[in-house]
């Protein structure tokens, strides 16, 4: 592909990814799978890497997708809620490790990693003043999010008062467990309402409502995975932060594996992948983070992603589904022939195709 062909394809990809990002982040109604979207973004990223002079600020490789929904109060994040760079094979992971090790050797700082599950939900920031929950917001575009305090207050696993009187802002992921999602869709079916496409969009759609009674009646949950800001307290490592968050009352991501090198990181990724089906919550990857907070500061961030973390995305899970019924309908259509005769035609449609967890099994 020459430069002109690449430019044309990049423009196509930008329009396509912008459309699907809007459906995913703003409307909570995706039309393609996460994997399909990831592949589009990966193609765009690789073309821009090959032709960096074609990179523009409006490309989704350079900014976080998402806007503030009408009716919500805007919240400016004091510490940006960035997204992560996605990778799909170990060669990219080794390249990440090489870059981190080079920086750590030059700065003479220790390098460890923490591997966590990448929870499939909606990212939020929670603010506490003197240990009391005062405000919560969605990620939005990373800089400005939506004030959804009224909805977050309905989530039982969000502590309203911490065990320590501190000023702290944390980041977490709101989600619906696999079991609760299955139950929720069964309730939708009984009420003859549309089924939710997936648990992520059910969680996001529930949280981004002006009426808090909707969130209250949905089985929303949350895991905290990062300290965004904290006053009068210092930590040396991310793992130390996570343990502290548990101590003061937060429900922290239960999968957090401390690794001394890239071999242990890969082992952790494979371990999580092998147990993915058994997890009570949905994931779409594993997050690899530099543990040393001082080294993180030195590594810094880009306009969109931190340089000290990366997300390994698992291939989409392969499932079997059950076709419960096939209904054939006989319709009457007028033909285009000159005598105006009525012609009978048949069409078949699949009816009531379920994809509930209780009906799934691995190939």
Would you kindly provide a written description of the structure presented here, covering whatever features stand out?
This protein has 363 residues and is an alpha+beta fold. The protein folds into three domains: 1-62, Helix hairpin bin (Helix Hairpins, Orthogonal Bundle), CATH 1.10.287.610; 65-313, DNA ligase/mRNA capping enzyme (D-amino Acid Aminotransferase, Chain A, domain 1, 2-Layer Sandwich); 325-359, no CATH class. Helix content is 33%, strand content 23%. The protein has ten helices and 13 strands.
CATH superfamily of the largest domain: DNA ligase/mRNA capping enzyme
| Strand fraction | 15-25%
- Sheet having the most strands: 5 strands, mixed
Under CATH, the topology of the largest domain is which?
D-amino Acid Aminotransferase, Chain A, domain 1
Q: In CATH terms, what is the architecture of the largest domain?
A: 2-Layer Sandwich
Whole-Å distance between the termini?
37 Å
Q: What does the radius of gyration come to?
A: 23 Å
Number of domains: 3
Global outline: globular
Under CATH at level 1, the class of the largest domain stands as Alpha Beta
Low-confidence stretches: 331-363
Query: How many beta-strand segments?
Result: 13
Main attributes?
363 residues; alpha+beta; Helix Hairpins; D-amino Acid Aminotransferase, Chain A, domain 1
């Amino acid at each position: 592909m020459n430069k002109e062909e690449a430019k044309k394809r990049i423009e196509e990809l930008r329009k396509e990814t912008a459309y699907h990002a809007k459906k995913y982040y703003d409307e909570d109604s995706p039309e393609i799978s996460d994997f399909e979207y990831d592949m589009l973004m990966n193609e765009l990223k690789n073309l821009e890497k090959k032709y960096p002079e074609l990179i523009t600020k409006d490309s989704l490789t350079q900014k976080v997708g998402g806007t503030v929904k009408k009716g919500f109060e805007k919240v400016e994040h004091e510490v940006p809620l960035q997204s992560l760079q996605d990778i799909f094979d170990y060669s990219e992971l080794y390249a990440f490790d090489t870059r981190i090790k080079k920086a750590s050797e030059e700065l003479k700082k220790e390098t460890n990693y923490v591997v966590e599950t990448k929870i499939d939900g909606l990212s939020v920031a929670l603010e506490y003043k003197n240990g009391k929950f005062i405000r919560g917001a969605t990620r939005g575009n990373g800089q400005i999010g939506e004030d959804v305090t009224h909805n977050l207050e309905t989530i039982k696993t969000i502590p309203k008062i911490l065990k320590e009187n501190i000023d702290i802002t944390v980041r977490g992921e709101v989600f619906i467990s696999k079991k609760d999602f299955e139950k929720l869709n069964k309730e939708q079916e009984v009420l003859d309402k549309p089924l939710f496409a997936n648990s992520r969009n059910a969680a996001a759609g529930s949280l981004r409502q002006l009426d808090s009674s909707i969130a209250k009646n949905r089985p929303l949950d949350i895991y905290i995975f990062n300290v965004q800001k904290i006053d009068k307290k210092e930590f040396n490592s991310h793992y130390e932060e996570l343990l502290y968050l548990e101590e003061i009352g937060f429900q922290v991501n239960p999968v957090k594996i401390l690794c001394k090198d890239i071999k242990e990181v890969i082992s952790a990724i494979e371990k999580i992948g092998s147990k993915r089906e058994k997890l009570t919550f949905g994931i779409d990857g594993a997050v690899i983070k530099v543990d040393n907070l001082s080294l993180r500061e030195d590594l810094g961030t880009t306009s969109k992603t931190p340089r000290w973390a990366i997300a390994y995305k698992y291939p989409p899970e392969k499932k079997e589904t059950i076709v419960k019924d096939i209904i054939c309908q006989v319709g009457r259509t007028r033909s285009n022939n000159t005598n105006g005769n009525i012609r009978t035609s048949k069409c078949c449609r699949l009816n009531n195709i379920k994809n509930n967890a209780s009906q799934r099994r691995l190939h």
